[in-house]
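Collaboration report, partner site 2.

Our partner group contributed sequences for two proteins of shared interest, and the home lab folded both. The records are reproduced in the order in which they were received, starting with the first partner submission.
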Amino acid sequence: MSYLSRLAEYADAMFHGSTAHRSAARCCRKSENDGMEVLLITTRETKRWTIPKGWPVKGLDPHQAAKREAWEEAGVKGKAKKKPFGYFTYVKTLADGHKVPSVVQVHLLETRATRSHFPERGQRDLVWLPASEAALLADEPELKGLLGKFSRRTAFR
């Protein structure tokens, strides 16, 4: 079954506001050749390539929650932009097996440092790639689009 077919069965719930809201960090850094690289991580369960994302955190704005997820899931420290870069949707499988349509608000995060010791170390694979290559690895079509969009624009001025 295609990705869009899986998402389509949740269209009614999405149109009626029954979605989970998540925040994500679009981590970027300068590469050795002065280009830009973006971070992809694998999910813990299915090992699909994605970006750091998580549930809302009480007391934190979405960009702050995205920054926190980048640290916890990938050891990335940096500055997240307040304005959303974009959104993507996917179906989140919860621990109890239920599936929830999710809307993810993505924030650009300028990577200033990476650490080798972080909360989810060893639970995920991490890779830094040019955005066009990262787009090929992502499953979600809207995330692919955000990765491609990123490669055509400078994130931080």
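Second partner submission, folded after the first:
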Amino acid sequence: MLAEAFHAEGNQVVITGCCKHLLDETTIMNPGMKAVILNVEDNNAIVSVAERLKLNHPDLNVVIHNAGIMRVERTRITNAQW
């Protein structure tokens, strides 16, 4: 994961996501990494989290959006499936 690679290089990393248990798993495996719950479908939440990050992490200088994990999906449809 990109966040873990940056964290391993000594950077302060704050991850966001909507699944607390996944955020917790990641921060437990990467002591010192921070996590914030964020639902990107909620515009008010985006504004709120952005303000909180600016307040709590004034030295933040890089933001990477959509750095999630892509899961393999079956995308090929055969004639038998029609």
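Feedback sent to the partner group on the second submission included the following. The two ends are 37 Å apart (CA to CA). Residues 43-56 form the longest helix (14 residues).
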